[in-house]
Structure formats: structure tokens, C-alpha cells
Design goal:
Length: about 450
């Protein structure tokens, strides 16, 4: 066991040493927590149940066990992701302007990182859908599986739209989109307005935490703001659920008349503000925790594959569920989610889903890192655009430049080949580069 932990600790120390001192690690921790919350939430509330006619249908324990609604309070963390997204995007755009980049260059770079991993998902599922059709899989089952696999795409479209609008909304007060959501809900639910009007809240609802992140970048959000958001958002959510008829679940429930998430309602926005307040209050504790090399390495590696994790977690669930059918109807995997026994059994399946997701990440993570590697190449006659020339970044560059090290080292000092991981920063963006380099044993131990 000791032989296994030593390389892990060494890698954690190297990631810690390669991280610029000015980087706010708590931001990356919040992003990782938000992604993990979404993944665990989907795995807990999504069940694939075989019907008597041989088709698969989706079911949710929230449909049968309303007392499980607090699970959605823990795992519906998209507001935190949009908070971090707004903070990082506004900071990134300001850095791009300082470098002299145009809006188009900045936007292409950000959307490229966002959508590049999508091509792998669409490609695999196009082939899989064709194979299932040829294999005689019923259309209802194909529809169920395809919908689950592609459902994360809605988030990308909304996030891409807000990213493109960053220069316009960077100074927008979050109260303005809150007012839009309030009036839309008032017309829909209070005055009997058309249901389609609710889709205005898809933009307005997620614009609330996004613009809150921009205010954070401007320095307008303090610890006191965090308490106001947490307590005020929690009180507003409780009032809307208890007295205004909003659902207690913060995710959609099959068969429910109203969904708090599809499209977002005022209750979901209020709940998101409470989550953002809690996230802001956790910044200092997270910064202290991220000083631990092992904790920071885990967060850094999660951010390295954030989009891959998000895009493939439903595929991992379906792969495990389909494979399990070979052994019959397994509790917590194929049975109806209508009892506490199912909840306990589903909890036992979570590590298996995580293993399936790890396989997906190993296979498709390369699509997420392709852009980072291409941007890390040096341009003719100048330095690479991926790494600024700030003094604190030169250390990070030196860690990853195995070739430069070898040219300065005597042959006797060269060690064995090891993977070197660098964690560079563009404003507050994440750029990872991995390479195979020879790190002298004495240097690695010195870190």
C-alpha cells in the first residue's frame, strides 16, 4: 500500500508546486463541487425500469417518495456553476482585452473549449443509435436513452449564450433578471398567462447567478453579501414552497404539473441565490483546505475533465444499467424507485457508476484537452499565448519544459521518465498540459 501512495503523493506535490501562487483555488473547488453535485443528483433520481413489453422507461424516486425532496436541495448545484462561470468569464474577458485580443478571438477560444468534447458524444451516440435501430431496439427505448444522453446539452447552449453576452451583462445588476423571473411567474401562475412565456426564464433565471459572478469579479460581493444571499434566498424559497404552491423539489419530477427547473421558476432562482450565498461564505474555508496538496490535486484533476464528466455521466449510468440486464432485474438498478429499499440499493450502485464514468473519461478526455495543447504551442517568433510571461508563470513553464531541463542537466542527473503536469492560468481559466519529461529525483523530492 505504501508503494502505491508514494507516487500519488508525489504527483499531488508536483501539481501543487506547478500552480501559480496567485490562482484562487477556491474557485476551482466550487466548480468541482458543482459538477459533482449535478452528477450525483442525476444518478440518484434517474432510474431506467424495464416494462413488460421489453422497453425501458425513466422513473424518479421523487415521483413516489416526496420526502426525498431534500436530495434535490443538495445536488441541484447549477446555480453555483453559473456563479463561477460568470466570475471566470468576466475576468477572462478583461484579461483578453489587456492582451489586445478581439472579442471574436476570445469567444472562439472559450466556445471551443466548451463544445469540443460535444463532438465525441454526438459521434458515439449517432453510431450507437444506428446500431440499436439495426439491432431491433424498440423506438421508445431508443428515445429514452437518447434523451438521457443528450439532456446535458441544454446546459451548454444556455451557458454558451451567456458567455457570448458577457461584455453586455458584465455590469448588469443581478436584481434585473430577478425582476424578469418574478414578472414571468406572476403572469404565468397568477394571471393565467401562456405556458410558453416561462421559457423566458431559461435565460433570465440563469443570468441571475451569472451576473452575480460578474459582481464578484468587480469586488462588489462581500462576506456580508454571502449571508444576505443565503438567509434571504432560503427564506424566500421556503415562503414560495409553503405559501405560493411551488414544488419542494428543485429538479423536475415526472408527472408533476410544475417543474422548478424546466423552465426555472422564481423558487429555483431564490434557491440558487441561497446556494450562491453559501458558496461565497465557503471561499475562505476552501482556500485553507486547498493548501493541502492532496485536496488540491483532486480538485485540479476534476477540473481537468469537468466537461467530460458532465457530458458522459448519463452514458455511464446507462452502460451500467444495460450491462446489468444480463444478470436479470437488479435491485436499485432496474426495479421501480418506490421504496426506501430502492434508495439504499441505488446508493450501493454509485461506485459502479463512478467506475463506468472513469472508463468514459479515460476514453474521451483527450477531446477536452486537445485545445489546450494546440494553444500551448509557441508561435513563430514569439512566446506561446497559452502562458503569460508573468514571473510566477515562469516556474510553471519550467516544470513542464522537460526538454529545456535536459539541455541544462548533466547526463548523470537525469532521472526516469515521469508524466509532468502543469496547471497554468489565463486570468482565472484552467489550462492543463501534460507531457513526458525527465525530472531529476533530487528536484522532485525538493518540491
Amino acid at each position: 500500500m505504501a508503494e502505491l501512495t508514494l507516487p500519488v503523493r508525489a504527483l499531488a506535490r508536483r501539481i501543487d508546486a506547478a500552480t501559480p501562487a496567485h490562482r484562487d483555488r477556491a474557485v476551482d473547488a466550487l466548480r468541482a463541487l458543482a459538477i459533482c453535485g449535478v452528477v450525483l443528483g442525476h444518478w440518484f433520481v434517474t432510474a431506467l425500469v424495464p416494462r413488460g413489453d421489453g422497453t425501458l422507461r425513466t422513473a424518479s424516486p421523487l415521483q413516489h417518495l416526496p420526502w426525498l425532496a431534500p436530495i434535490s436541495w443538495l445536488f441541484q448545484t447549477l446555480a453555483v456553476f453559473f456563479l463561477v462561470g460568470g466570475h471566470v468569464a468576466t475576468k477572462s474577458y478583461a484579461s483578453a482585452r489587456e492582451r489586445g485580443d478581439t472579442y471574436g478571438q476570445w469567444l472562439r477560444a472559450r466556445l471551443g473549449r466548451l463544445f469540443r468534447p460535444v463532438a465525441a458524444v454526438l459521434g458515439l451516440w449517432t453510431v450507437a443509435a444506428g446500431g440499436m435501430l439495426l439491432g431491433g431496439v424498440p423506438l421508445p427505448t431508443l428515445h429514452t436513452l437518447g434523451k438521457l444522453a443528450l439532456s446535458p446539452m441544454w446546459f451548454l447552449l444556455v451557458f454558451a449564450g451567456l458567455t457570448a453576452a458577457t461584455p453586455l451583462v458584465a455590469r448588469l445588476n443581478p436584481l434585473w433578471p430577478v425582476a424578469v423571473v418574478l414578472h414571468v411567474d406572476l403572469i404565468r401562475f397568477g394571471l393565467g398567462g401562456p405556458a410558453w412565456l416561462g421559457w423566458v426564464n431559461v435565460a433570465a433565471g440563469w443570468l441571475v447567478p451569472y451576473t452575480l459572478g460578474a459582481a464578484w469579479t468587480r469586488g462588489e460581493v462581500t462576506r456580508r453579501s454571502g449571508w444576505v444571499l443565503l438567509l434571504g434566498g432560503a427564506a424566500a424559497t421556503a415562503g414560495l414552497v409553503l405559501f405560493a404552491g411551488y414544488p419542494a423539489s428543485m429538479v423536475g419530477v415526472p408527472g408533476a404539473a410544475v417543474s422548478n427547473l424546466n423552465p426555472p421558476t422564481l423558487a429555483a432562482v431564490a434557491f440558487g441565490l441561497a446556494q450562491c450565498g453559501l458558496a461565497l461564505l465557503l471561499l475562505d474555508p476552501l482556500r485553507r483546505w486547498m493548501r493541502r496538496p492532496a485536496a488540491w490535486a483532486a480538485v485540479a484533476l476534476a477540473n481537468l475533465s469537468a466537461m467530460t464528466i458532465f457530458l458522459w455521466h448519463q452514458t455511464a449510468l446507462m452502460a451500467v444499467t444495460s450491462t446489468g440486464l444480463l444478470a436479470g432485474r437488479l435491485p436499485g438498478l432496474h426495479t421501480s424507485p418506490d421504496s426506501p429499499t430502492w434508495v439504499a440499493a441505488r446508493a450501493a450502485w454509485l461506485p459502479v457508476f463512478a467506475l463506468g464514468l472513469a472508463v468514459c473519461c479515460a476514453a474521451f478526455r483527450v477531446y477536452e484537452g486537445a485545445g489546450s495543447r494546440s494553444r500551448g504551442r509557441a508561435r513563430p517568433g514569439g512566446a506561446s499565448r497559452a502562458v503569460p510571461r508573468a514571473p510566477e508563470m515562469r516556474t510553471s513553464c519550467a516544470v513542464s519544459s522537460g526538454k529545456a531541463r535536459r539541455s541544462r542537466m548533466p547526463s548523470g542527473a537525469r532521472g526516469t521518465a515521469r508524466p509532468a503536469t502543469t496547471y497554468a492560468a489565463l486570468g482565472n481559466e484552467t489550462v492543463f498540459a501534460t507531457a513526458s519529461s525527465r525530472i531529476p529525483t533530487t528536484t522532485a523530492a525538493g518540491r
